[in-house]
Write a structure and sequence with these properties.
By secondary structure, the protein is of the alpha+beta class. It has a single domain, classed as Electron Transport, Fmn-binding Protein, Chain A (Pnp Oxidase, Chain A, Roll), CATH 2.30.110. It is 19% helix and 28% strand. The chain is built from five helices and eight strands. Strands 1, 2, 3, 4, 5, 6, 7 and 8 form an eight-stranded antiparallel sheet that branches. The longest helix has 10 residues. The relative contact order is 0.22.
């Protein structure tokens, strides 16, 4: 039976922090708009900020649908599945905000991700999610799958980009500055990434 939680703590927090993969779902307000569902990986790119707030790093990619939807309406759902151990699915339904590289909060947030080198992955933003509903469910039909390791391809691809070339890469893509449905996506040109984030707290 599913259960609703008042906060992200204890075993619930330990479960989601241990998962190497989660999914994000967003949608535009338009009834005929394009719903987006994205997998998110790379160890160290997700953190629990407090009992009702989580965040993850938004890296370079082919589109910016999640960013565009959040800028329009803020709605987001995150989902984690247990692919090993006891069956479990956890969803955090809430409001999300993309914090861009020129935001005064950016470096303080970035310091919460000490295990990720942002220069390797074309970091575009930090998505902060405020939980409004936290629930789990059984996950009986989710298969057993083994996590071996993170792929290193993303880091290898984007490590060779600096701020200028990264902006040029994004500007050549059709759905970075504007979503599939014409919504405002990633602000371009990309603001420079500061070289020295604050020390982790």
């Amino acid at each position: 039976m599913g259960k609703t939680y008042e906060r992200i703590d204890g075993r619930l927090r330990a479960f989601i922090e241990a998962q190497p993969l989660f999914f994000t779902a967003t949608a535009p307000l338009a009834g005929d708009g394009t719903i987006n569902l994205s997998p998110k990986g790379l160890r160290g790119s997700f953190v629990v900020l407090d009992e009702l707030t989580v965040a993850y790093l938004d890296f370079a990619g082919s589109t910016a649908e999640t960013v565009a939807h959040l800028r329009e309406n803020g709605r987001i759902t995150l989902m984690w599945c247990a692919f090993q151990g006891p069956p479990n699915i956890v969803r955090v339904h809430g409001r999300g905000e993309p914090v861009f590289r020129d935001d005064p909060r950016f470096l303080d947030l970035l310091a919460r991700f000490p295990d990720i080198d942002p220069s390797l992955h074309g970091l575009r933003a930090i998505v902060v999610v405020s939980a409004e509903l936290v629930r789990d469910s059984c996950g009986y039909a989710v298969p057993f799958m083994t996590y071996d390791e993170d792929r290193d391809l993303h880091g290898k691809r984007f490590a060779r980009e600096d701020d200028a070339s990264l902006s040029a890469y994004f500007e050549k893509k059709d759905h970075i500055a504007t979503s599939l449905d014409g919504l405002a996506g990633l602000p371009l040109p990309l603001p420079p990434l500061a070289q020295e984030p604050p020390a982790p707290r």
